[in-house]
Amino acid sequence: MVIGVPKEVKDQEFRVALTPSAVQHLVSLGHSVRIEKEAGEGSGFSDDEYHTAGAIIVETHREVFRQAELILKVKEPQPQEYQYIQSHHTVFTYLHLAASKSLTEALMASGCTAIAYETTETVQRELSMLRPMSEIAGRMSIQIGAHFLERHEGGRGVLLGGIPGVSPGHVVIIGSGVVGASATKMAVGMGARVTVLSIDVGQLRHLDDLYAGRVTTLVSRSQVLDDSVKDADLVIGAVMIPGAKAPKLISRDLIRYMKRGAVFVDVAVDQGGCAETTHPTTHSDPVYVVDHVLHYAVTNIPGIVPRTSTMALTNATLPFIVRLVNQGVEEALKTEAGLARGVNVSRGRVTCRAVAEAHGLPYTPFDAQ
């Protein structure tokens, strides 16, 4: 099979869909890899490394799409890429379609098969390709929040870890899944006072056991959430419903009652965000202020640590890629239920219920096509 890896075009997205070692593995299996010139440069992988691994270096974005059957990306196709996607393509990437009706409709119009990393499952029903980027985004959210709490960035001027005789900053993490647990690990390590809110008591119990009283765990109910957010220096939005829009848990009114110069990092922005005040930002212009609260809502947080992110992502995606290319896409989707659950759009139809519901579009189960 001919595999295409275009250079990412999203703002300051430095990741790439395959490492040279992954390319070498796919070529050894008899497949052909076309990779756009300088696609790996942002992650520290040169064209020479890809050429040595067996890839064919392609000069333009358009040519990668023209030559390939399977398109591997990191982030969702951008508007300037829509024109290149054709009915014979299978696009395998993070899609987050519930947050973008325009992309959903563009993929439908193309007639392609679009498989989302974030809804593809293992045989154990785990979201193994979502996990590593969630781990990175969760850890980075605390690092980012600590930076924007600095006074010269517009924050409250609070050091998360405090010092002897001065209270540490208060971090409130909404959600206890992979993002929330990763954020908790970093916040505890920095010496912050940490509160985690979740509706999953089992996950809260695990965090309580893990940190032996160093973390306050609370079942998330309206009043509990409001009180915690009002007291926070840094709030992390870490809620996720696979494939669906994130619930709006933080109202505009609640933002008004937060501390002046507090920071809100909404990691759920890929799925629409968990606050009424959230809108997507970029690494070039990452923050905005609503009612004296700094909002950070960059949709590709792991892109700022691209070497780590690219290697972690390829570790997770390569087993699925191998199945797609060795069996052929059609056969792999017939025999691999986890891969089939990753299909969000196929032959002009929406095949992910959560995406269809988010946009009021008809839903067609993948196996019913």
Query: What's the β-strand tally?
Result: 15
Q: What structural class is derived from the secondary structure elements? A: alpha/beta
Do you know the CATH topology of the largest domain?
Answer: Rossmann fold
pLDDT average, as an integer? 96
- Unreliably modeled segments: none
Beta-sheet strand percentage?
15-25%
What's the overall geometry? globular
Blueprint of the fold:
Elements: E1 2-5, H1 20-28, E2 32-36, H2 47-53, E3 56-58, H3 61-67, E4 70-72, E5 90-93, H4 101-110, E6 113-116, H5 131-148, E7 170-174, H6 178-189, E8 193-198, H7 201-211, E9 215-219, H8 222-231, E10 234-237, H9 252-256, E11 263-266, E12 287-290, E13 293-296, H10 306-327, H11 329-335, H12 337-340, E14 343-346, E15 349-350, H13 353-359
Parallel strand pairs: 1-2, 1-4, 2-3, 4-5, 5-6, 7-8, 7-10, 8-9, 10-11, 11-13
Antiparallel strand pairs: 6-14, 12-13, 14-15
Give the tags:
7-stranded mixed beta sheet, 369 residues, Rossmann fold, 2 domains, alpha/beta, 8-stranded mixed beta sheet
Structural account:
With 369 residues, the protein is α/β, with parallel strands linked by helices. The chain is globular, with a radius of gyration of 21 Å. It has an 8-stranded mixed beta sheet with strand order 3-2-1-4-5-6-14-15, sandwiched between helices. Helix content is 35%, strand content 17%. The protein has 13 helices and 15 strands. A hairpin with a 2-residue loop joins strand 14 and strand 15. The model has no long low-confidence stretch (mean pLDDT 96). The chain has helices spanning 20-28, 47-53, 61-67, 101-110, 131-148, 178-189, 201-211, 222-231, 252-256, 306-327, 329-335, 337-340, 353-359; strands spanning 2-5, 32-36, 56-58, 70-72, 90-93, 113-116, 170-174, 193-198, 215-219, 234-237, 263-266, 287-290, 293-296, 343-346, 349-350. Helix 1 runs parallel beside helix 2 (47-53). The chain folds into 2 domains: 2-120 and 305-368, Rossmann fold (3-Layer(aba) Sandwich), CATH 3.40.50; 134-304, NAD(P)-binding Rossmann-like Domain (Rossmann fold).
